[in-house]
Amino acid sequence: MSFQGYFQNLSLLLPAEQKTNRLTEMNRLLSLLKQFFGYTSFRPLQADIIKHILEKKDALVLMPTGGGKSICFQLPAIYLPGVTIVVSPLIALMKDQVEGLVNNGIPAASLNSMMPEAEQQRVKQLARQGRLKLIYISPERVKAEADWFLPSLNVSLIAIDEAHCVSHWGHDFRPEYTQLAILKERFPNVPVVALTATADKVTRTDIIKQLNLHEPGIFISSFDRPNLSLTVEKGLNKKEKIQAIVRFIRRHPKQSGIVYCQKRSDTEMLSDELSMYNIDAIPYHAGLPHDVREQAQNDFISDRVNVICATVAFGMGIDKSNVRWVIHYNMPGSIENYYQEIGRAGRDGAPADTLLFYSVGDLILLRQFVEESGQKEINSDKLEWMRRYCEADVCRRRVLLSYFGEESKEDCGNCDVCKNPPVRFDGSILVQKALSGMIRTGEQVGMNMLIDILRGSSRAEIISKGYNMLKTYGAGRDLPFKVWKEYIYQMIQLGYIEINPMSNYTLKSTESGRNVLFGKDTAQLARYRERVVESSQSSSGYKATPIRPKQSVPVDESLLDALMQLRKQLAEREHKLAYHIFSDDSLYEMVAHKPVTLAEFGMIRGVGDIKLERYGRIFVSLIRFVLKMPKLPQ
Ligand code: ADP
Ligand code: ZN
């Protein structure tokens, strides 16, 4: 990384500072937000948090992944006179953030033990000379530097990112984090802001205690990520899932996405299968050699490969903002995990799609894991919530948010249930047919066999077992296999049928099922509908959201293509990541607004002063070329 830019860029800070007297603090913050980040407004809570920090008070910030935590300390860092120390647990994350800052003309650097000694010395020198606005430091270095180097700096603010790492309760405990209270000792008058995407109360209390925060302001933003569309597909078999994935990826051409699998072998199986459909996909799991994994991760981050089939080991510590979709090949064991995994999509705020495959087989497997786990009760509660989410026939986002303790008053309009609400009908006769079929076999059959009996299939096993002699044989001929499957799923959800995992997943009737069978009760089912899984990225019906009032992705494919090409070429030439040049969100804005002058280009979201100067001309020229307009005057 070159430090040249830092010296040049420092001068950029001066004009803004001179304006202080005339502008109010808020106006000044907004103008810095535009100047350095290219954004014209704050997201919810960002302004409150920043004002609180500027009053020199400690803060605890809880926001979901992609919610916009970084601005909360990066903007004060620019505003305040000295340097901001940022503690961050992963070197990859530090590097990513520092590169993003430098590209926006903000002097920043990181300090960690993986860097050559000479470079560390250079960073320290720059910091001592007051030439850095932010210095990222790994937690284990904090202790080593707490006596000499850090106190030699003019520190204005301390930010502790991923602060949940301090807590034993969390999923990500790091012992070095527990020593960070030393910062408060060394800098008693410097505000500390701790940030995390983990919301639970125990972790919260732990952070405050361990970091020794002084009467912190606690800011909890909504965990809603309205730009993520939510879809669940039920009961598909392996072949159908692969088909569905292929169709999904074809609807998302040239977009980056992750397919999460439970099993390592599935990541390899899937990437092979996808390759047969000419989809360039690579596997990733902890069992692959280190260099293969690193290569895979780099190929994905730098857009050389669009699709990665991975176990959940993948994604920690990646900040790639332009992941446009996430598929879950299997159901996750908890809503926390699921939310964290889908949260890796759409971090830039532009629409992103998620798809989860839910099957009773996965559920049963997970239940077995829970039985064997140390914390049986907690885990089974978590799994139960996940099941509820998958089986929901109300707005899925409301289920998610209620899990996080948030109340939502409206349906989201961006989940499969909202887009395709269930229509109920009296399905008692169907329940009766299914149950009587089951009972007549002595409750010895699984779902597929039952459906075959109901549909009057003449496959060998049915004949050999004499099921073709049953009274219900062929009684459900009028409905296709997949429709029966959907209805039997519903009967399981509604508690009319149980699955017996101990006996080959055979179906068993329940008491409430038998009540319907004997006419003592009726059953309401939701009518089967051929699902069209729409992408929110092409849907005009996408609902307005608080984060982004306007959610639409351009239809102008050729312009988008050209802009993506240009971004890619620039990224290669400058050895940068494409999304550090411009986010997908900024490219979509360019397509939507078609800026043909530099002034117009400067108004695009994500275009700050430096990027306007560096890339404005070349992007505007391209847009004019595609629109067949005369060249931009010199
Ligand atoms: P987090 O750290 O909470 O996961 P980030 O700080 O990486 O989230 O922010 C997520 C994305 O949102 C980034 O691409 C960031 O540039 C963008 N963003 C943050 N604040 C704003 C804002 N006020 N307006 C527009 N985009 C924003
Ligand atoms: Zn919804």
Helix content: 40-55%
Which of globular, elongated, flat, extended, rod-shaped describes the shape? globular
Bound molecules: adenosine-5'-diphosphate, zinc ion
SS class: alpha/beta
Distance between the termini: 32 Å
Strand order of the largest sheet: 3-4-2-5-6-1-7
Number of discrete helical segments: 27
Instruction: Calculate Rg over CA atoms.
Output: 28 Å
Strand content: 5-15%
Largest sheet: 7 strands, parallel
Give the SSE map.
Blueprint: H1 4-18, H2 25-37, H3 46-54, E1 59-62, H4 69-79, E2 83-87, H5 91-103, E3 108-111, H6 117-128, E4 134-137, H7 139-145, E5 155-160, H8 181-186, E6 192-196, H9 201-210, E7 217-220, E8 228-234, H10 238-250, E9 256-260, H11 264-276, E10 281-284, H12 290-301, E11 307-310, E12 323-328, H13 335-342, E13 352-358, H14 360-372, H15 376-391, H16 396-403, H17 416-419, E14 424-426, H18 428-440, H19 447-454, H20 460-464, H21 481-493, E15 497-500, E16 506-509, H22 511-517, E17 524-526, H23 557-574, H24 578-581, H25 584-593, H26 598-602, H27 609-626
Parallel strand pairs: 1-6, 1-7, 2-4, 2-5, 3-4, 5-6, 8-13, 9-11, 9-12, 10-11, 12-13
Antiparallel strand pairs: 14-17, 15-16
Helix pairs in contact: 3-4, 14-15, 15-16, 18-19, 18-22, 19-21, 23-25, 23-27
